[in-house]
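Backbone-to-sequence.
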Protein backbone atom coordinates (compact mmCIF):
# COMPACT_ATOMS: atom_id res chain seq x y z
CA UNK A 1 0.00 0.00 0.00
CA UNK A 2 1.56 3.30 -1.15
CA UNK A 3 1.49 6.41 1.04
CA UNK A 4 3.39 9.68 0.91
CA UNK A 5 3.99 10.36 4.61
CA UNK A 6 3.98 6.87 6.15
CA UNK A 7 4.99 3.33 5.27
CA UNK A 8 2.58 0.42 5.66
CA UNK A 9 4.02 -3.09 5.55
CA UNK A 10 2.55 -6.50 6.41
CA UNK A 11 4.63 -9.51 7.35
CA UNK A 12 3.64 -12.71 9.15
CA UNK A 13 0.37 -11.30 10.45
CA UNK A 14 1.89 -8.01 11.67
CA UNK A 15 1.17 -4.64 10.07
CA UNK A 16 3.97 -2.14 10.70
CA UNK A 17 3.02 1.52 10.31
CA UNK A 18 6.04 3.82 10.14
CA UNK A 19 5.80 7.61 10.36
CA UNK A 20 8.04 8.68 7.49
CA UNK A 21 8.94 12.35 7.71
CA UNK A 22 12.32 11.94 9.44
CA UNK A 23 13.58 15.32 8.28
CA UNK A 24 10.86 16.88 10.48
CA UNK A 25 11.07 14.35 13.33
CA UNK A 26 7.86 12.85 11.91
CA UNK A 27 5.79 15.87 12.90
CA UNK A 28 2.17 15.42 11.90
CA UNK A 29 0.61 17.18 8.92
CA UNK A 30 -3.08 16.80 8.08
CA UNK A 31 -2.10 14.56 5.17
CA UNK A 32 -0.07 12.34 7.45
CA UNK A 33 -2.89 12.04 9.99
CA UNK A 34 -5.26 11.09 7.20
CA UNK A 35 -2.87 8.41 5.99
CA UNK A 36 -2.50 7.03 9.52
CA UNK A 37 -6.25 6.73 9.90
CA UNK A 38 -6.47 5.00 6.53
CA UNK A 39 -3.71 2.57 7.51
CA UNK A 40 -5.43 1.61 10.76
CA UNK A 41 -8.71 1.11 8.90
CA UNK A 42 -6.89 -1.13 6.42
CA UNK A 43 -5.36 -3.14 9.26
CA UNK A 44 -8.78 -3.46 10.88
CA UNK A 45 -10.37 -4.81 7.68
CA UNK A 46 -7.57 -7.22 6.79
CA UNK A 47 -8.13 -10.61 8.45
CA UNK A 48 -4.50 -11.50 7.77
CA UNK A 49 -3.40 -8.69 10.12
CA UNK A 50 -3.52 -9.77 13.76
CA UNK A 51 -1.25 -7.16 15.36
CA UNK A 52 -0.15 -3.60 14.54
CA UNK A 53 3.15 -1.85 15.27
CA UNK A 54 3.45 1.95 15.13
CA UNK A 55 6.92 3.50 14.98
CA UNK A 56 8.89 6.37 13.47
CA UNK A 57 11.62 6.62 10.85
CA UNK A 58 14.93 8.21 11.82
CA UNK A 59 15.86 9.59 15.22
CA UNK A 60 12.37 10.59 16.32
CA UNK A 61 9.10 8.81 16.97
CA UNK A 62 6.94 11.90 16.50
CA UNK A 63 7.50 15.55 17.41
CA UNK A 64 3.78 16.33 17.46
CA UNK A 65 1.83 18.72 15.27
CA UNK A 66 3.71 20.28 12.38
CA UNK A 67 3.83 23.97 13.36
CA UNK A 68 4.17 26.83 10.88
CA UNK A 69 4.05 30.63 10.76
CA UNK A 70 0.40 30.66 9.70
CA UNK A 71 -0.60 29.20 13.09
CA UNK A 72 1.11 32.05 14.94
CA UNK A 73 -0.37 34.75 12.68
CA UNK A 74 -3.96 33.51 12.63
CA UNK A 75 -6.46 35.05 15.07
CA UNK A 76 -8.26 31.69 15.09
CA UNK A 77 -6.05 28.81 13.87
CA UNK A 78 -9.00 26.41 14.23
CA UNK A 79 -7.07 23.84 16.21
CA UNK A 80 -10.34 22.49 17.60
CA UNK A 81 -11.44 21.62 14.08
CA UNK A 82 -8.10 19.94 13.39
CA UNK A 83 -8.63 17.76 16.44
CA UNK A 84 -12.21 16.87 15.58
CA UNK A 85 -11.48 16.19 11.91
CA UNK A 86 -8.10 14.45 12.09
CA UNK A 87 -6.73 13.53 15.51
CA UNK A 88 -9.86 12.36 17.28
CA UNK A 89 -10.94 9.82 14.62
CA UNK A 90 -7.40 8.43 14.56
CA UNK A 91 -7.17 8.04 18.35
CA UNK A 92 -10.62 6.45 18.49
CA UNK A 93 -9.67 4.00 15.72
CA UNK A 94 -6.48 3.00 17.55
CA UNK A 95 -8.48 2.31 20.71
CA UNK A 96 -11.34 0.44 19.03
CA UNK A 97 -9.46 -1.69 16.49
CA UNK A 98 -9.88 -5.16 17.96
CA UNK A 99 -6.25 -6.11 17.43
CA UNK A 100 -3.26 -5.35 19.66
CA UNK A 101 -1.42 -2.11 18.87
CA UNK A 102 2.21 -1.67 19.99
CA UNK A 103 4.03 1.66 19.85
CA UNK A 104 7.78 1.29 19.32
CA UNK A 105 9.09 4.67 20.52
CA UNK A 106 12.47 5.02 18.87
CA UNK A 107 13.44 8.56 19.88
CA UNK A 108 11.93 11.97 20.53
CA UNK A 109 8.23 11.76 21.38
CA UNK A 110 6.60 15.14 21.99
CA UNK A 111 3.20 16.81 22.11
CA UNK A 112 0.62 14.95 20.04
CA UNK A 113 3.30 12.32 19.42
CA UNK A 114 3.00 11.38 23.09
CA UNK A 115 -0.76 11.14 22.65
CA UNK A 116 -0.27 8.72 19.73
CA UNK A 117 1.98 6.53 21.85
CA UNK A 118 -0.47 6.64 24.76
CA UNK A 119 -3.33 5.48 22.52
CA UNK A 120 -1.48 2.24 21.74
CA UNK A 121 -2.14 -0.82 23.90
CA UNK A 122 1.52 -1.30 24.80
CA UNK A 123 4.62 0.89 24.51
CA UNK A 124 8.18 -0.32 24.03
CA UNK A 125 10.82 2.42 24.15
CA UNK A 126 14.40 2.69 22.99
CA UNK A 127 16.83 3.65 25.73
CA UNK A 128 17.37 6.79 23.63
CA UNK A 129 13.67 7.74 23.70
CA UNK A 130 12.30 10.76 25.53
CA UNK A 131 8.80 12.06 26.21
CA UNK A 132 7.84 15.73 26.37
CA UNK A 133 4.34 17.07 26.97
CA UNK A 134 5.33 20.19 25.06
CA UNK A 135 1.92 21.88 24.85
CA UNK A 136 2.58 24.24 27.77
CA UNK A 137 5.64 25.62 25.97
CA UNK A 138 3.39 27.14 23.30
CA UNK A 139 0.41 27.97 25.51
CA UNK A 140 -1.77 24.99 24.62
CA UNK A 141 -3.55 22.15 26.39
CA UNK A 142 -2.66 18.45 25.95
CA UNK A 143 -5.01 16.95 23.39
CA UNK A 144 -5.66 13.90 21.18
CA UNK A 145 -6.51 11.91 24.31
CA UNK A 146 -3.49 13.04 26.32
CA UNK A 147 -5.50 14.20 29.32
CA UNK A 148 -7.43 10.92 29.26
CA UNK A 149 -4.65 8.33 28.96
CA UNK A 150 -1.74 9.98 30.78
CA UNK A 151 -3.22 10.19 34.32
CA UNK A 152 -4.50 6.64 33.99
CA UNK A 153 -0.99 5.40 33.27
CA UNK A 154 1.17 7.53 35.57
CA UNK A 155 -1.28 8.99 38.10
CA UNK A 156 -2.79 12.46 38.30
CA UNK A 157 0.09 14.13 40.12
CA UNK A 158 2.77 12.95 37.69
CA UNK A 159 0.55 13.71 34.71
CA UNK A 160 0.03 17.28 35.88
CA UNK A 161 3.74 17.68 36.54
CA UNK A 162 4.63 16.51 33.04
CA UNK A 163 2.02 18.74 31.39
CA UNK A 164 2.43 21.88 33.51
CA UNK A 165 6.25 21.92 33.35
CA UNK A 166 6.83 20.46 29.91
CA UNK A 167 9.96 18.82 31.27
CA UNK A 168 11.56 15.97 29.36
CA UNK A 169 11.07 12.45 30.71
CA UNK A 170 13.82 10.05 29.64
CA UNK A 171 13.27 6.38 28.88
CA UNK A 172 14.37 5.12 32.30
CA UNK A 173 11.95 7.40 34.14
CA UNK A 174 9.19 6.60 31.65
CA UNK A 175 9.52 2.93 32.54
CA UNK A 176 9.68 3.68 36.27
CA UNK A 177 6.43 5.69 36.27
CA UNK A 178 4.55 3.27 34.02
CA UNK A 179 4.48 5.45 30.93
CA UNK A 180 6.05 2.63 28.90
CA UNK A 181 5.90 -1.12 29.40
CA UNK A 182 9.53 -1.83 28.64
CA UNK A 183 12.80 -0.10 27.69
CA UNK A 184 15.24 -1.93 25.42
CA UNK A 185 18.60 -1.05 23.87
CA UNK A 186 18.10 1.23 20.88
CA UNK A 187 19.52 -1.18 18.31
CA UNK A 188 17.18 -3.96 19.51
CA UNK A 189 13.96 -1.95 19.66
CA UNK A 190 12.37 -3.18 16.45
CA UNK A 191 13.61 -6.73 17.00
CA UNK A 192 11.98 -6.87 20.43
CA UNK A 193 8.84 -5.12 19.22
CA UNK A 194 8.41 -7.44 16.27
CA UNK A 195 9.00 -10.44 18.55
CA UNK A 196 6.16 -9.30 20.79
CA UNK A 197 3.93 -8.49 17.81
CA UNK A 198 4.64 -11.93 16.32
CA UNK A 199 3.49 -13.54 19.56
CA UNK A 200 0.28 -11.49 19.43
CA UNK A 201 -0.21 -12.51 15.79
CA UNK A 202 -0.46 -16.12 17.01
CA UNK A 203 -2.71 -15.30 19.97
CA UNK A 204 -6.53 -15.57 20.12
CA UNK A 205 -7.28 -12.31 18.31
CA UNK A 206 -11.00 -12.26 19.05
CA UNK A 207 -10.34 -12.57 22.78
CA UNK A 208 -7.82 -9.73 22.67
CA UNK A 209 -10.32 -7.56 20.80
CA UNK A 210 -12.96 -8.28 23.42
CA UNK A 211 -10.44 -7.43 26.15
CA UNK A 212 -9.96 -4.01 24.54
CA UNK A 213 -13.74 -3.51 24.52
CA UNK A 214 -13.88 -4.38 28.21
CA UNK A 215 -11.05 -2.10 29.29
CA UNK A 216 -12.36 0.79 27.17
CA UNK A 217 -15.79 0.37 28.75
CA UNK A 218 -14.32 0.15 32.27
CA UNK A 219 -13.29 3.81 32.14
CA UNK A 220 -16.92 4.88 32.27
CA UNK A 221 -18.77 2.02 33.98
CA UNK A 222 -19.60 1.37 37.64
CA UNK A 223 -18.73 -2.09 38.94
CA UNK A 224 -22.18 -3.64 38.58
CA UNK A 225 -22.42 -2.61 34.91
CA UNK A 226 -18.88 -3.78 34.22
CA UNK A 227 -19.59 -7.19 35.73
CA UNK A 228 -22.57 -7.60 33.44
CA UNK A 229 -20.57 -6.44 30.43
CA UNK A 230 -17.82 -8.95 31.21
CA UNK A 231 -20.42 -11.72 31.28
CA UNK A 232 -21.74 -10.60 27.87
CA UNK A 233 -18.25 -10.57 26.37
CA UNK A 234 -17.40 -13.95 27.87
CA UNK A 235 -20.48 -15.39 26.19
CA UNK A 236 -19.15 -14.13 22.86
CA UNK A 237 -15.61 -15.39 23.52
CA UNK A 238 -16.82 -18.84 24.53
CA UNK A 239 -18.43 -19.31 21.11
CA UNK A 240 -15.20 -18.69 19.15
CA UNK A 241 -13.12 -21.32 17.39
CA UNK A 242 -10.10 -20.12 19.35
CA UNK A 243 -11.80 -20.96 22.65
CA UNK A 244 -12.57 -24.47 21.44
CA UNK A 245 -8.97 -24.87 20.25
CA UNK A 246 -7.61 -23.52 23.52
CA UNK A 247 -9.57 -25.98 25.62
CA UNK A 248 -8.73 -28.88 23.29
CA UNK A 249 -5.02 -28.01 23.39
CA UNK A 250 -5.12 -27.78 27.19
CA UNK A 251 -6.70 -31.21 27.49
CA UNK A 252 -4.25 -32.68 24.96
CA UNK A 253 -1.30 -31.02 26.75
CA UNK A 254 -0.01 -29.22 23.64
CA UNK A 255 0.41 -25.61 22.54
CA UNK A 256 -2.76 -24.10 21.11
CA UNK A 257 -2.82 -23.08 17.45
CA UNK A 258 -5.08 -20.05 17.33
CA UNK A 259 -6.53 -18.76 14.06
CA UNK A 260 -7.94 -15.51 15.35
CA UNK A 261 -11.52 -16.69 14.76
Amino acid sequence: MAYKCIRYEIRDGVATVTLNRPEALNSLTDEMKGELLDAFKAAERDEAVRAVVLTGEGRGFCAGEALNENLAKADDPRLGETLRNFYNPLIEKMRTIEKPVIAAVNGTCAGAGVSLALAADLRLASDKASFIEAFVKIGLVPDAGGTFFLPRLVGLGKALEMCMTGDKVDAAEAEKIGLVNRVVPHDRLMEETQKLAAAFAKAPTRAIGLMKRAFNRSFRSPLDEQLGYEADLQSIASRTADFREGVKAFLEKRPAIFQGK
